[in-house]
Amino acid sequence: MCNLYRMTKAPDEVARLFGAGLGSIGNAGGEVYPGYPGLVVAEGKLQSMVWGFPLSMKGAKGQPLKPRPVNNARADKLDSFMWRFSFAERRCLIPATEFAEAEGEKGAKTRTWFALPDEPVFAVAGLWRDTGEWGPAYSMVMSEACIHVADVHDRMPVILKREEWRDWLDGPPDAAGLLCRPYPDVMVVNRTADPWSRRGRTNAEQKA
Question: In this structure, is the dihedral angle defined by the CA atoms of residues 201, 202, 204 and 208, taken in order, positive or negative?
Fold first, then answer.
């Protein structure tokens, strides 16, 4: 799964790259965490949405709690109730410059970053919908890991090649589903000594 990624390019540059208009950008940060705003391409516009579909939570006595963001959608579960309508009708592209996974022993995990060697910005497959809790929200589609990621985590974001962007956005679900596979080409792996949980935000995410 992915609980942290970066999108460090200027919005107008990203909009040009994706051939999209500029929508409401908001305060999306360069490092994106579950439950916080990120940029997506949807309905022909680059716009800000919250990363994660809200999952209703209840306390021990049945009292409602703050929703948790479900920020990863497994490719093999896209026909489940939570995802199937968005997968059929509301697919998006998530611009990213790199994504991170936690590596190391429990309590001492560090950040390992993954990027593409010749693509300063790449597109991750996403789903989106309007929510009563946070407004427009998106989730990142996950596949089995490719060889460059597999020794760190068994799953990875679905990275789409440029020629696949239109098929993901507008193609029929059967064709879009075929794009949900481990990335087939070379990736850059950057292992760091940066603590994984230094900002304390990674405990909020859930996966479905």
Answer: positive
Question: Using CA of residue 130, residue 16, residue 114, residue 166, what is the dihedral sign?
Answer: positive
- Which range of residues forms the domain containing residue 113? 5-55+66-207
**What is the DSSP code string of 69-114?**
EEEEEEGGGTTSHHHHHHHHH-EEEEEESEEEEEESSTTS-EEEEE
Quote the DSSP letter at residue 161: P
pLDDT in tens, 177-192: 999 999 999 999 999 9
Q: How many whole angstroms separate alpha carbon 144 and alpha carbon 204?
A: 23
β-pair type (135-144, 37-42): unpaired
Share of the chain above pLDDT 70, in %: 95
CATH of the domain at 109: 3.90.1680.10
Q: Which helix H or strand E contains 175, and what residues bound it? A: helix 173-177
